[in-house]
Design goal:
By secondary structure, the protein is an alpha/beta fold. The chain has helices at residues 22-25, 40-43, 46-53, 71-84, 95-108, 116-120, 183-201, 209-231, 236-249, 263-275, 279-293, 295-310, 317-334, 348-358, 373-384, and strands at residues 11-14, 32-35, 59-62, 88-94, 131-137, 147-152, 157-162, 170-173.
């Protein structure tokens, strides 16, 4: 196992009814900015619960954070937070809302002229407003990590950034708030979490059996409960398991001491920025083809994952590894997630723009740095068929 340091200060409160603890977790002093998305919290009961828990507090609402949160939208929130003297940020939503809130937290405390440089890493996050989370859409694990992904237009870009100052103070995970989610969003969360785990365990192998088994446990639970939830979407126990799986998939724990990849995510970010694909759907459409392209390097881990997660019985490593990729595709298809890119969406013109973004990674992606822009092009063309 590789050397590592693990730090995670997030107080996580899980369970039906856990929203009732919110009032004790949000600080009393100063205005609270409530950051949300497109209005779902008014439909799923979260808004009413928040109003009850925050009664008597000065609340500054900021709705309208879009999927793949946009810089222009978030800068409006930053201006509002400064004008209102906001002291605490509360994100009520899924990964996009939480990611956007993290940017607001950092940018509101930033004294420079261009907050986008916090995302590019040209400026460090030296201070940030404190954050709390009420999770309504599992998938990204942003509720329990220090990272975020922010998009912008003119020029089009989508970039990850992170800082220890962006860990939420707390996260409330109440699975009852996920019961009203449309299946598409539920499936997206499962797919996103699945690929998060793959990026940390299906890599060049190092001796880390515990880490691999933790990862395999999450994958097995995602498969078992994801399939069951497709048939029983109102099963609160299943929703709770999937919510916890999604958090564990990227709260940095399973990444300790292992080699990590993240090339599927970086390719997916470019597809989302240029083609408007749902983040998770960009991942599931790219992953099988990236695994086939990198088959020899990942064959051993693929074979083990096939046997332990999908019940592949082939004794031969190559056969088991190829069966694992096919089993992943079958699982994604069961969830109604794509395993190919749609050529009517990723047109030749879009592909050129995506590959233009990937040129920034000329030194290579992946755990061995050998996924060059030319390799990315092969992967995308294979996915397009």
């Amino acid at each position: 196992m590789l050397d590592f340091t693990y730090y995670n200060p997030v107080r996580l409160v899980y369970g039906p009814g856990s929203i009732e603890k919110l009032g004790r977790l949000v600080p009393d002093e100063g205005p609270v900015m409530l950051v949300s998305g497109g209005g779902s919290i008014e439909r799923n009961g979260v808004a009413d619960a928040l109003r009850t828990q925050l009664q008597g507090r000065e609340v500054v609402p900021f709705p309208g954070v879009e999927p793949n949160p946009q810089l222009d939208t978030l800068l409006r929130a930053v201006r509002l937070a400064r004008e209102a003297g906001v002291r605490f940020l509360l994100a009520a939503g899924g990964g996009s809302v939480i990611d956007g809130t993290k940017f607001i937290a950092a940018a509101a405390a930033f004294s420079g002229d261009d907050p986008w440089q916090l995302v590019t890493g040209r400026e460090k996050v030296r201070a940030a407003l404190p954050i709390g989370v009420v999770l309504t859409l599992p998938g990204t694990a942003s509720e329990m990590n220090d990272g975020a992904v922010i998009s912008r237009k003119n020029p089009t870009d989508k970039q990850p950034f992170k800082s220890e100052r962006l860990f939420p103070r707390f996260a409330i995970l109440d699975p009852t708030f996920t019961l009203s989610l449309p299946w598409r969003y539920t499936a997206n969360g499962i797919g996103d979490a699945f690929v998060h785990v793959l990026e940390q365990t299906c890599t060049r192998d190092v001796f880390s059996p515990l880490q691999h088994r933790l990862a395999e446990g999450i994958l097995s639970t995602l498969v078992e409960c994801g399939r069951a939830l497709r048939e029983r979407p109102d099963d609160l126990d299943l929703r709770g398991e999937l919510m916890w799986c999604s958090t564990l998939a990227l709260n940095r724990l399973i990444g300790c001491g292992v080699v990590q990849d993240w090339s599927t995510h970086l390719i997916g970010h470019a597809l989302t920025a240029e083609a408007g694909l749902d983040h998770a759907r960009s991942l599931t459409a790219v992953l099988p083809w990236l695994l086939r392209e990198r088959f020899e390097a990942k064959r051993g881990r693929l074979a083990t994952l096939g046997r332990r997660v999908f019940g592949v019985t082939a004794a031969d490593e190559e056969t088991a590894a190829r069966a694992a990729i096919e089993a992943m595709e079958a699982f994604f298809t069961e969830l109604e997630l794509p395993v190919r890119l749609d050529p009517s969406v990723v047109t030749p013109a879009v592909l050129v723009r995506v590959l233009g973004q990937m040129s920034a990674y000329s030194k290579g992606l992946g755990e061995d740095g050998d996924i060059t822009p030319d390799v990315v092009e092969r992967i995308l063309r294979a996915s397009l068929g």
